[in-house]
Amino acid sequence: MPQEIEIEFKNLLTEAEFNKLYEVFNMKNVPEIQQVNHYFETKDFQLKQHGAALRIREKNGKYQSTLKQPQGEGLLETHDFLTEQEANSWLQGYITLGPEISKQLQELGISTAELIYGGSLETVRREQSYNDTIIVLDRSKYSDVTDYELELEAQSYAHGEHVFNTILTENGIAKRKTPNKIQRFYDSLRNR
């Protein structure tokens, strides 16, 4: 499916909070998912100005480009699958967009020629179903940073918000403003 609406809630965690939730949700028996996000932007951050983000996700030997854009209470995700050769070309600066993302960027007035590779972020993820949502615990590494994050994906905003807030409250975790991974990645480059 080339497009979908994603409703998710995020909260950065301390390492201790991450370990607590890891135990609370018995994640030790949940398989790890290793993924690498490769981020792309223009020199003057045109995507960010539109609240959008562009990445290639490398997972299980497969490559998918994704453009995320604000859409109501969630994010509109537009996907195109890539071969390994196409993904490697992107990383070398030869970006050839698939039809779906190309169309979306044209609507934003952003030219493929302006896109540049920013770098990568590696994540070890564990996820499982919980109360009609999906709970995700991520440990991500980028630049000289390791961070920990709780994500919760839901079908409806109201239900997801309720489950998310309940998890935080029951585990004594403060709600924190949590920029998305691409924002944290680019912020880490500025802080070097």
Summarize this structure as a short list of keywords or feature phrases.
eight-stranded antiparallel β-barrel, globular, 192 residues, alpha+beta, 29% helix, Hypothetical Protein Pfu-838710-001
Describe the structure.
With 192 residues, this protein is an alpha+beta fold. The protein has a single domain (3-191), classed as Beta Barrel (Hypothetical Protein Pfu-838710-001), CATH 2.40.320. Helices cover 29% and strands 43% of the residues. It has 6 helices and 8 strands, in the order E-H-E-H-E-E-E-H-H-E-E-E-H-H. It has an 8-stranded antiparallel beta barrel, surrounded by 5 helices. A hairpin with a 2-residue loop joins strand 4 and strand 5 (74-82). The longest helix has 14 residues, at 157-170. The protein is globular. The mean pLDDT is 94.
